[in-house]
Write a structure and sequence with these properties.
alpha/beta, 8 strands, binds adenosine-5'-diphosphate, binds magnesium ion
Length: about 260
Amino acid sequence: MKIAVTGKGGVGKTTLAGGLARLLAKQGFNVVAVDADPDANLASSLGIPEEEMAEVVPIADMKELIAERTGSKPGTFGSYFKMNPKVDDLPEALSKLHDGVRLLIMGTVKEGGGGCICPESVMLKALLQHLLIARKDMVILDMEAGLEHLGRGTAASVDAMIIVIEPGMRSVQTANTIRKLASDLLVPRVYVVINKVQDPEEAEIISRRLDGLPLLGSISFSPVVRRADIEGKSPYDLDSAFVEEVREIKDRLFAELGVEE
Ligand SMILES: Nc1ncnc2c1ncn2[C@@H]1O[C@H](COP(=O)(O)OP(=O)(O)O)[C@@H](O)[C@H]1O
Ligand SMILES: [Mg+2]
């Protein structure tokens, strides 16, 4: 199963992606968590200590590897390079393994504009495609709202996209924008999770505004989840109520997708 988590900045994408990844690993699945947000912070949500991440280089910045795999010469513009670099060994080689979750940090590609294709973006695209198509793992993608990393073809290969929203109409509007993007990119299924719910009535009101977008569940506002972030720890390790809510979301998702456990 391949799941992309999206939503407006600050809604809790990374919190949910980290929670889902840890839960699935606990349940015995091979999990690859992909940090595809330029503002990468999935590691702390998974519970990986900051010191351990200090030396981790995002894949987009691995100049030598990219040059070697794509056959491009760094610094030369407009040269020829392979469009299908070898990537199948990279999820093992480049990931950080923690509590059964393999974390991959994609990094950002600064493209020259005008739709230029550069070796870095070819590399990331090939890796994502490999993860989504060729592998049997559970893949959780922590994305930004813009879906930049999901080109046509790649997006169609996820099984589902979860849009995280907060109680509030602005968040619902963002959800609708993302939903249109997702539909243009042929994402097969799109769901919503409402996060930071302070009372059930809020979730009720928002769910009526979702215009047919199916709701997978909600997560309560939790001072413990917030505190975990402040301490750079995983809410999965500190907040059992959070874990229970993530479990319900996962169960609903599995039921929707007809995944057998
Ligand atoms: N259910 C929750 N209760 C309290 N705080 C939360 C909750 N979910 C997320 N947060 C906090 O909101 C902030 C943004 O969450 P984060 O997962 O990083 O969002 P995003 O990845 O969408 O930018 C973090 O400080 C996080 O701890
Ligand atoms: Mg995030």
